[in-house]
TrEMBL record, chain A:
Annotated compartments: Nucleus, Nucleolus; Nucleus, Nucleoplasm
Domain of life: Eukaryota
Molecular function in Gene Ontology: ribonucleoprotein complex binding
Gene for this chain: LOC108740291
Protein known as: Ribosome biogenesis protein BOP1 homolog
HAMAP family according to UniProt: BOP1
Automatic annotation (TrEMBL), chain B:
Keyword Nucleus set for record: yes
Main location: nucleus
Source species: Agrilus planipennis (Emerald ash borer)
Family annotation (HAMAP family): Pescadillo
Gene responsible for this protein: LOC108744495
Full protein name: Pescadillo homolog
Amino acid sequence: MTRKREKRKPPKSISVVERHTDIDEKNEADEEDENVYFNTIEEEDENSASDSELEDDSDGETEKVLEDFVDEVNSEEYSDSDEHNEDDNLESANDNVNKADSVDESESDNELEEDDSYESEEVSSAPESDSDSDQEEKIKGPLKNKQLKQQSVKVNNKLSKLHQNGKNKFQNENKEFPSGKDEYADGDTSDEEDIRNTIGNIPMKWYDEYRHLGYDWDGNKISKPEQTDTIDNFLRKIEDPDFWRTVKDPQTGQEVVLNENDIELIRRIKEQKIPDVSFDDHAPWIEWFTSEVMQMPLRKFPEHKRSFLPSRDEAKKVSKLVHALKMSWIKSEEERRKEKAKKEPQFYMLWQTDDQSEEMRRIHKHIPPPKRPLPGHAESYNPPPEYLFDSRELKQWNKHKETPWKRKLHFVPQKYDSLRKVPAYSRFIKERFLRCMDLYLCPRAIKMRLQVEPDDLVPKLPSPRDLQPFPTLLAIEYKGHTDMIRTITTDKTGQYLASGSDDCTVKVWEINTGRCLKTFKTDAVVRTIEWCPNEKLPLILVASGRKVILINPNVGDFLQNIKADEILKEKPQSEVIVSDRVKTTVRWDDPTEEEYEKGFRIILSHFKEVTQVTWHGKGDYFASVMPDGQNRSVLVSQLSKRRSQLPFAKSKGLIQCVLFHPSRPFLFVATQRHVRIYDLVKQAMVKKLMSNSHWISFMAVHPGGDNLLVATYDRKMLWFDLDLSTKPYQTLRLHGTAVRAVAYHRKYPLFASGSDDGSMIVSHGMVYNDLLKNPLIVPLKRFQDHTTDNDFGIFAVHFHPLQPWVFSAGSDSTIKLYSN
Amino acid sequence: MVSKRKKKYSTGEGSQFISRKQALKKLQLTLNDFRRLCIIKGIYPREPRNRKRAQKGDTGIKTLYHIKDIQFLMHEPIIWTLRDYKIFNRKVGRAKAVRDFKTMKKFLDNHPTLKLDHIVKERYPTFIDAIRDLDDCLTLCFLFSTFPSLAHIPREQFNLCRRLTIEFMHAIIEAKALRKVFISIKGYYYQAEIKGQTVTWIIPHHFSFEPQSKQEVDFKVMSTFVEFYLIMLGFVNYRLYHSLNLFYPPKLSISTPNESEKALVDENMFLSERIAALNTPLVKTSNEPVEEDIEIDTFSENNPEKIEEARNEAIKIKKLKTLFKGLKFFLNREVPREPLVFIIRCFGGEVSWDKNLFVGSTFNEDDETITHQVADRPSLEKQYISRYYVQPQWVFDSVNAKELLPVSKYFIGEVLPPHLSPFVNNERNPFEQYIPPEERALMDPAFAEEINKKRQEKENKQVDCIDNNDELEHDNNEIIKTNGLEETEVEKLDPALDKKKKLSVAPGTIYKEEPWMQKKQERQEYKLREKMIKKKHRKIYRAMIRNKKDKAKESWLLRKKRRIIDESKKDNKT
């Protein structure tokens, strides 16, 4: 091993190896004789001396580099302070040795001490002409060298080398001095500890103001070398060829000339190369630790038995793993892969045939979900232009933001002129989600859908054309009344028409001409008039206010009129005592002269207002209705006997209307909701008809007597077939408003109804003689000629007794005749 | 002895229905599990005939299940798997909480799986049943195949969706079962006929995925549906492939990658990419021809017209199956590849595209034998003379028309004719419902000619400065005349009116007025008859009439809009 090699360490990895070798060699050296060791050291020292000499000759260029480097080295030095301390200890020990010549037992190594003592002896022989510091340097030089060698610390080596170099320079400079030459004559150029200055690690500028630089080991001041001015420097620069390689040691203030090796070293470090020149970067790799497994152990002693026995600990672990594998808690990679593949769905032939199923449990009465409707033209990306929304439709669409089900379409149609411009539909996911929710959460039920056209629901009725004759045209209008006409009636022959109005008059018209023949003035509003059905008594029964008046209109057959007058003149004599109840209800009066002139024949004064009067079919009896009369509201009077009766002892409600049965002794009494049929002979109720309506307005009985037509204020007409049940055979909703009047034709199968909207409907109402056949009802024609006034339309309808003609009287104070 | 009094709601509807809450209690499941079970088993609430009675007197609206459905669920073995899930979740949660990741991983590896095969069989006892219910399945799977990975949804689902839908498309191509196609703003509608059942599905346009808010869309519910649909679609695919003599995991004729490619690509990936290209026919298990549709039975129907019609239809479909045979298509890169390749291949055409666009292209753009190039840009720089450059709509419209339409209207840069839906009912009354003129022209070519003629005539008339209304008036007069004749006949039958009319009628005026009167009278009569409708039918009749009116109004509106548009167009031209 060479010293140089040790100093210029390669990068770390290698350095480890070298240290090893060092150690090995050291071990060897330990084992070997000490003398040998010393010899080698001496040899080495010689080598290094020769080196330094060589270096002196060589020239360098890297003068500038040096200054920096020295600083660097200093810092390195400080960083390795521990070693320095150690060194210091050693050195102090050495000092002791020098002075007291005693051996300090406390030092670590015997050899070292021996070494030291040896060297110190050697050094002591040298003349002491040099300055203190120099001397010391020389004394410590070999010692330090030895120490470093033993410690073999790279950085320190480098440092010491540098110092040594500095030293060399110093020597060179001091060559003039004879002592210097003597000192190194033995060729000992090895490193010595330079630290003569004891000030430690402080900035040197603190000593700028002093003449000294610090203190040496003995506490003496180290004086600054002489300051050179710039001229001197310049001169030296010119004269001294080594000026560029001269650096100043900041601690000693001495100038040091760097040798060739130092400069090379600095240059390499600057270039970031490995400082050692001899180190081969590309040397073949030496495998210090082989990767090959050798057959035989390198070790001398045999392996312990333990190493051949299976470890119990491991065995435990293995057994655990085996158990886990066995229990399939853990799985091998392959098993895991297999398992994963198994978890993926496997498909196979699930259905062997297309449409044959096995017997399996099924969902109970499965209702398959309905499919979504397929898209129409509007959903196209390029629809025909008419399907796009205009601004109004768009507004409508936007209006239903909160109520999307009201929208015509669930999307806004869009038009793109090419396929590449079509964007994704933003509601697609939402729509699919809603469909999913429908499938899962929407209740399902089977709904039978009616597969019918609306026309199929309209009843098939015979065409009106086949049911003629019926009134179709407005023929005549009878004008003359000044207020609304409440009631009309015709005489038996069909020549004359009488009408009663709110202007308190009764007018008699000639039907065919429309002329008003007579006008009878009464005291109050005329509610009802009715012509006597008996041909021999051409009388009109008039209800006006509280009075019921029998008027002989004096139209038609002259003889009959006179006869009727004569009959009425003679009062029948009867001994029947009239009860008080009747007496208080009605009073039969004869008209005054004046009234007689007008045509009044008999006047009945009632205790309440009379709203309706009606003749019995034979023309002898008539009934009058006083709705306010409580239990005396219906009064039946007999003309021939001039006698009245109160058929009911109890009130059954507000009586609207009464009618006599055309052929049998029955009385129909309509209260608000029901129609009661009384047998007048037996004095008992026969039937009670349920109207299912709120308020009955009027009724008419079929000439056959088995059918009853009831008009109500709640827009309905009820056809009761008395043979069938007490409920209406048919409810007719022909009118849009309250029905005020109904009438049957006496001969033809016709009936008419008038309502508040001013319309009259003529219908075909055929009643068959065959009991098994139900009546046929066909609405035939609607007339809308009356104008409404005060929400009143038609008040009365009446058929011509012989012809299929119909009269209607309304609030517009006209009477209209419709003929066929 | 007094018989025990019967408790209310122990029979009838009151005992047949069970509310959801009760069902949960009975099945001992959480709502989430119950939902999953219902979706997978296809159990749905039912609408009772009388809700109040079914809810045992409770008013309000509850979700009611049939008691038998719930009993059916009770016997389902996957309930136990769902319960296992519950336990599994608890275990994993615990392991996670105590940070015992090793055991957690162990648990996660051994997670319970739902096996749904038997449920598919149970819900769809026959193959036909499954096909009948395929619409929703396909649409949802196609949608899911476009999704990115989402939270709470297993990622395999998306991949499996993609795989199975591609396989299904291959089956449709091989069976040539596609019938109708339609580009809507929502996506592409396809209608195929499998085993006599029509199956319609929608494939969304590109980039259909949008993040949805939690209140709007619950992807977990959809994922549960997909979970079942995937199994179902897999079995349907298997059966379809089997009936078409194809290998089920589909095999391609050019299956292996080249030597050079072999090192670079995963073989499975390579294969699945080629399959996704839809451009290579699959390998058949045997060369036996697949049984074709049976000839129409001529004995079944007595009506010879119907038989003739059916035969014509069959011929048309046969033609449709080979619509693009012998044609070579090249798709430009801006054209959506998958739908077009699918359609063209379904009808026997050859198709290719730029090889940088997607794997599986078979020929290049410079191939001289290409007959059609599908492009969707206003102009192309380099054009070959030997081929037509058409817009994609041509392909769709041709399929719907069941014949190759003239390409002139579909050249690139042309304004496209409207794209009409093939799904609207063809047997509509043109007087009741609106049919756009383009569709009528398609339905019968005579109409198209008529339109053209009319247009020409009108133009001529305009030149001659003749009033446009003339023709219409002429028509009207004719109608009036015919009606007038009828009217006179009727009048003669009516003896009562006869006399009067003879006296007063002036022939000219009467003829003009009578049809109007007649109509009015008829309308009046009808109105009266309407009032005689039974009470039972009155409401429904009104609803029907209202419906009819609305429809009429709608069609009137469309007609009007069209007229205005046409007129404005004409004005612009002149």
